[in-house]
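request received
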Amino acid sequence: MKHNFGAGPCILPAKVLDQAADAVRDFNGIGLSILEISHRTPEFEAVINETQDLVRSLLGVPADYSVLFLQGGASTQFSMLAMNFLQQGKKAAYLDSGFFSLKAIKEALFFGEVNVIASSKDKKYDYVPVGYQIPADAAYFHYCSNNTIEGTEMFSHPATAVPVICDMSSDIFSRVINVADFDLIYAGAQKNMGPAGMTLVLIKNSLLENLGDEIASMSDYRIYRDNNSMFNTPPVFSIYVAMLNLRWLKEKGGVAKQEIENIAKSTLLYQEIDRNTLFYGLSNPVDRSRMNVTFKMYDQELEAAFLDFAVSNGIVGIKGFPTAGGFRVSLYNALPISSVEVLVKSMQDFEAKLLNQKVSLENKVRV
Amino acid sequence: MKHNFGAGPCILPAKVLDQAADAVRDFNGIGLSILEISHRTPEFEAVINETQDLVRSLLGVPADYSVLFLQGGASTQFSMLAMNFLQQGKKAAYLDSGFFSLKAIKEALFFGEVNVIASSKDKKYDYVPVGYQIPADAAYFHYCSNNTIEGTEMFSHPATAVPVICDMSSDIFSRVINVADFDLIYAGAQKNMGPAGMTLVLIKNSLLENLGDEIASMSDYRIYRDNNSMFNTPPVFSIYVAMLNLRWLKEKGGVAKQEIENIAKSTLLYQEIDRNTLFYGLSNPVDRSRMNVTFKMYDQELEAAFLDFAVSNGIVGIKGFPTAGGFRVSLYNALPISSVEVLVKSMQDFEAKLLNQKVSLENKVRV
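response:
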């Protein structure tokens, strides 16, 4: 058995994978695969509607918000949201808290002015900036709630009258949120929602009231809202597997229960990182992400050996992002706490092994 | 067994569906699903590279063309290509041959001027315009090679020095093409390539040489070319299934052999439409599509009964597009000729049944 700590596309529940595989062969016993039915069939309409309902009930989405399914990933949202909401003569306020928030800033600059109101770039994004002001005249305030590469997470944002837009790609459905605190939430599916190829957008309808007419259809949120996300062929399979996955989450007890589990999983791992004499955490303790745990070894030369040791215990996907180095362990919803226990035990065993080697080496020298 | 004549997402080979289902459970025996591996793994890099190679070899793509995989469908290409190639002060030449060509025109208008050089809208797009000139100063010439809704197909275009951009969503891989005749070909995957959620783009590299710097990353073809279509997370599963499907096509003998089969399938059906006293074809005989066959019944009130009769024979997906009415029968690569035979026999049986009813009614009246 593999313990899949990959950062995304990532682990999905075994039950969901079984159901998805069955539907690739025969969807609901209709004699056709989920891959070969039209999105205009009643069968698929039921899928997209159930997926929307699950999103609404799991996150408590208010009635005046639309639930949309788009393609292109969160990266497409970086430009699309600016295209829709960064009107001429306006400036958008961005928080620069990591690799992906900086990407969002770069794309917004194609469409208008950006005011970076705070940044943690000075310390390689190992903390989340605080104490900043959101200018009252900003077109919107944008931030990324979880920085996958750096391993920091923001559980709240300053109160503001400005529309709040949040990239929740890597922590949506992992903890309880108050959707009404946001005007637009977007998230690439491939962490806690489903397979790659789909992006969830929750949008307050009033935000769409005063948009211009110069936005091409596939970049216009109104088109998705007015066509139940089916202006053109949607990513049928990605939506279907997201439905299965959200059903699984609901059966498990929903987001509140999942959050308790996610706290337990991340606490277990951070405690071991702090206790173990070989490892140290990379992010500011108060900003530690529950989804992506980043750490290194004091002796960097041991990292390859630990990686091998981990692999021999069935652990995969823990290598850090190339520019960050070290390790990044992702603890998404589908990852059971038993996998974290295996990792923690591996860290302990590796420490003990090293200690024994050292002792036996010292003994040898003594003899 | 179902005979799936759906217009897309459409029938895929049973072998491909079996392999895809297996990979959803366990990809290549690595103990992980194809849905839960990172696109940055060597395993997935092998998939995307093989898919590219298959596209190159099946279509004979010249070396100076890039093979790209994007998201958003052909609809996103409608605006993206104009964003890239419709420079200020320039005009693009468009052929208006159907529902989707008109959509492409509407999206291009967000970015620049469009010259509709010919249109068949006057006759509900039941023919393909001929005898038009492509202005030498056009930024590019755009057309759609197969009109899915109307059932017409274009097998060539006038010679021109202007860059040619073609939407081949519904007939790519169905017939031999000379890629060098085009500067950019795009195609939503969900017909002859694979499941929905991915779009193939073939692009002559020289077309990308003089682009401006004002294009957002996810709309910039150069970004996809320079990052092997992995600037961000690609639609992993859609690409994987496309690879399986293109392997299947190659094993079968490739595009040339498939084209012979497609000619046989469409000829069989058109012959029956022309022979049968109940049915008539909707598109101009010389422009008939091999992929999408459109027809109606002389007595429109019989259409619901024929549809029921067809369904009772396992036939699905033949209802015409809502605005077109009648029937649309799609004969994509994965559809075996035996399915066409079942449909033709259903048309014959339905005709015979009606004739018998008529005879027995006449006998009754006589008695």
